[in-house]
Structure formats: structure tokens, C-alpha cells
Write a structure and sequence with these properties.
Elements: H1 3-34, H2 37-59, H3 64-80, E1 99-103, E2 106-113, E3 116-117, E4 123-124, E5 127-133, E6 139-146, E7 154-160, E8 166-174, E9 192-198, H4 200-203, H5 205-210, E10 214-219, H6 224-243, H7 257-263, H8 282-288, H9 298-305, H10 308-312, H11 320-324
């Protein structure tokens, strides 16, 4: 056997090994996310046996590639059996997603959340239906909330129907009771997606006052017809999720990338940008697109947009939405 042939054969072994290692890591992670206890151990054991068998086949010159294809088909078939559901034992704050109807210019939203939070994770629950007049839609505000890494933010979009009536939309994971967020789990169908519509005194205040997050509020510059189209795209998403549940995904179906899809109704040519992943930098991206009013340096915008300390100083009896916009 010539040196060249040996090198080609060895390179083939290395290539196969790398592909097998990547596939094994993916399958093992998927099993680890989807199973616990005994089931997880059984799944990992089967993966280890399959991996060992494929390595032996490869080393002995057998049909390792065919075996790999069969194993991949089996794992893929199992993974496709994991489907999103509506009937889990949901955590209280995501027990209901928004849905609604439109009659003329009147929109009725069902399951609007208006919790009174007593700690960062406990609240007195309240869900209600609310009615809005699309002719009164007059403002859109974008909230970003960070809690550690300033480049990663949760995005909330709030619509104002005059000064006295506002509704905020938040795309979130739909946790089960006792479940917590996992970035890795978000890649492996561990969470469903939910659209929450809530009073700002609920969904914003819990972040500013109780969870200690840094919340920024940016008015968004949109024409009346654009505001209406964006609002209705949120309503469409809520109705779609109510009819057909979907999985959350850490990258492709999160609070920012989902909103990017909704914004296509008002800007179909909105370019992809890394700041859609680094969502803490989203205000700079929107500003570059001309979506924030005025010609103001971004550092000044951010300083004016910070509302967490203002929210914490709210006096008893004040209206939360008015207070965070007052500048007092």
C-alpha cells in the first residue's frame, strides 16, 4: 500500500470520526433535553452502542456509512415525533396566550394579563378581555430588558391607544410549572412559544422593580397605517399559536427573531443583521434604519430611555405607564 493510499484512507477515517462525533453530540444533547432519569440513561446507552458499532465497522472496512445513514434516520424519525402541545401544566404567567377578533375597527383581545406581582416570580393572577379602537392607535414603544450580558435583551413592544390605554406584547417561552429557561433546551424543542399581551404595569414593572433588570424604552417612528399593520400582525401571531402551537427556538423563534418576522408587514426589505441575535444592540439597528425619531446621538438616546430607576421611584397611586414616560 503506497503512502498516498494510506493517507487517503487515514483522512477518510478522520473525516468519518469527526462527522460521527458531531452527530453523536447532537443526539446525546437532544436525548438529555427530552428525557430525564432512567430514560435519559437508556437513550445515552443506545447512542454509545451505536457509535461504537459504527467505529468498528469503519475500522474493519464494513458499511459504516450505510450504518450511519440508518442510525441518522432512526434518530431523525424519533425527533420528528416531538411535537408542540397546548395541554401541558403551564406556569401561571404563561397559562394563556393572547387571541382576538377584529370587527371593523374594533379589536377584542382575549386573555390579556394584568398580574399584580408580589415578588420576582409570584403574583396575584388576573386575565381579562379588552377592546381597542384601531382608529385610536397613536404610538408604538420598544422596550429592551437586560439582566446580565448587555448584548442580550428581551424585547417587548407596546401600543398606545391614546395616553390612557396601552397594551404590551411579549414573545416568550411557554414554561411548564417548575420549569426554567435553558438556552440549550431552546435549541432542542424543549419549550413552546407563547405570545403574552399584558398591561405595562405587569410585564414591564416586574422587570424594572422586582427582577432588577435594566429596561430601556424607545418610541418608534411609524406611520398610522404601519402601526395598525404591526398591531394586527401580533394579533395574527396570537391566533396562529392558539390554533397551532409552535416551538420556541433560541435563535430562529425567540423574542427578537419572531418580531423580525412580524415587522415584514411594514418593511419587507428589512435586512438581516447580527444585532437581531445580539438583541441588546437592537436599538442601534432600528436607529440606523430610521425607526427612532429625531437625530440624537445613541448614547443620549440610551440615557433618556433608561426607565428602571424611574419606575422604582414611582409614588403610590400613580399610573405606571404615565410615570415611566413623565421624566420625573
Amino acid at each position: 500500500m503506497t503512502m498516498a493510499v494510506r493517507w487517503v484512507r487515514w483522512a477518510g477515517h478522520v473525516e468519518f470520526g469527526l462527522v460521527l462525533a458531531g452527530a453523536t453530540a447532537w443526539a446525546a444533547t437532544a436525548v438529555g433535553v427530552q428525557f430525564a432519569g432512567f430514560g435519559r440513561g437508556v437513550g445515552w446507552g443506545l447512542i454509545a452502542l451505536a457509535c461504537a458499532a459504527l467505529l468498528v465497522l469503519r475500522w474493519r472496512g464494513g458499511q459504516a456509512r450505510t450504518g450511519f445513514a440508518v442510525a441518522a434516520l432512526v434518530v431523525g424519525a424519533w425527533y420528528q415525533t416531538i411535537q408542540p402541545r397546548q395541554d401541558r401544566d403551564w406556569a401561571a404567567d404563561v397559562e394563556h396566550g393572547i387571541s382576538g377578533t377584529v370587527t371593523g375597527f374594533t379589536v377584542t383581545l382575549h386573555n390579556v394579563r394584568d398580574f399584580v406581582w408580589t415578588s420576582d416570580s409570584a403574583a396575584t393572577p388576573f386575565w381579562e378581555s379588552r377592546t381597542y379602537d384601531l382608529d385610536q392607535l397613536s404610538s408604538v414603544d420598544m422596550f429592551t430588558s437586560t439582566w446580565g450580558n448587555p448584548d442580550i435583551a428581551h424585547l417587548i413592544v407596546s401600543f398606545g391607544f391614546g395616553a390612557a390605554s396601552r397594551i404590551a406584547f411579549s414573545v416568550e417561552i411557554r414554561k411548564e410549572k417548575g420549569e426554567s429557561f435553558s438556552t440549550i433546551g431552546g435549541f432542542f424543542r424543549d419549550f413552546e412559544l407563547v405570545l403574552i399581551a399584558a398591561d405595562e404595569a405587569d410585564v414591564i414593572r416586574v422587570r424594572t422593580n422586582l427582577r432588577g433588570e435594566e429596561v430601556l424604552m424607545f418610541p418608534v417612528k411609524l406611520k398610522p397605517e404601519q402601526m395598525r399593520a404591526l398591531f394586527l400582525s401580533y394579533l395574527d401571531l396570537g391566533n396562529q399559536l392558539a390554533e397551532r402551537p409552535q416551538f420556541y427556538n433560541t435563535v430562529t423563534a425567540n423574542c427578537t427573531s419572531t418580531v423580525y418576522g412580524l415587522v415584514q408587514v411594514i418593511k419587507p426589505d428589512m435586512p438581516l443583521d447580527r444585532r437581531l441575535l445580539l438583541s441588546g444592540q437592537l436599538p442601534e439597528y432600528i436607529d440606523e434604519l430610521g425607526g427612532l425619531p429625531g437625530a440624537i446621538p445613541m448614547d443620549q438616546r440610551r440615557a433618556a430611555a433608561a426607565i428602571s430607576e424611574r419606575a422604582k421611584g414611582m409614588v403610590a397611586g400613580a399610573n405606571f405607564s404615565d410615570w415611566i414616560r413623565s421624566g420625573d
